[in-house]
Amino acid sequence: MPNENLISTLEQSLRQSRAARTRLAARLAELEAETETVRTEIAEMDTLVSQTEAAIFRLLSSVLVSNSNAAQMPSDAELEAAMRHDAMRAQSVARANAAAHPSQPRHHIPPLRNDIEVKSDRFRDRTISYAATILLREASEPLHVNEIYNRLLEGGFVFTGNNPTISIAVSLNRNRRFRKVAPGTFDMVMREASQAS
Fold first, then answer.
1. 10-residue block means of pLDDT along the chain (197 residues)?
2. What is the pTM of this model?
3. Helices 128-139, 145-154: inter-axial angle, 10-degree rounding
4. Whose CA, among 14, 22, 36, 144, lies 20 to 30 Å from 4?
């Protein structure tokens, strides 16, 4: 019957449209997360630029003071005030970005704790990747490297390098099981794949 063929064709078209919409929604979510990451990195770069400019200005001032009249050069207090002004300006830009995009969550960086008590030895002879896999499964959400570090110490993990959080980030970046979802924050690729389906 022609009506059955038409219904079958429409149902197939509907399935394809729904699948395309799901793919587009997933892509949009990825782009929004990437946008927030880029915004955060831009704010960090703004702060770094203002601090570098202030440092250059201070160095040039000290060179010029030694070569000319000190009364014409800005004082250390004036330079410190200029640096504080630049830092406040960078913070206001970051707040304006957050206000302009309130639906996007702010990236929280947990503190590194130095009062951690070892609660077990379950990570004592494990690799960072293996232990992080367990921690991310237990957390059921992405974790910042600082939080991973804190939890690894609680589990008896022994770090050998001078910069353990950098070691964690490098290890997770190199492993295909993990994906960076925000600055310093990682999740398991398999969880993202299961949530997308």
1. 80 89 85 79 73 68 55 55 60 62 60 82 90 92 93 91 86 90 88 57
2. 0.46
3. 100
4. 22
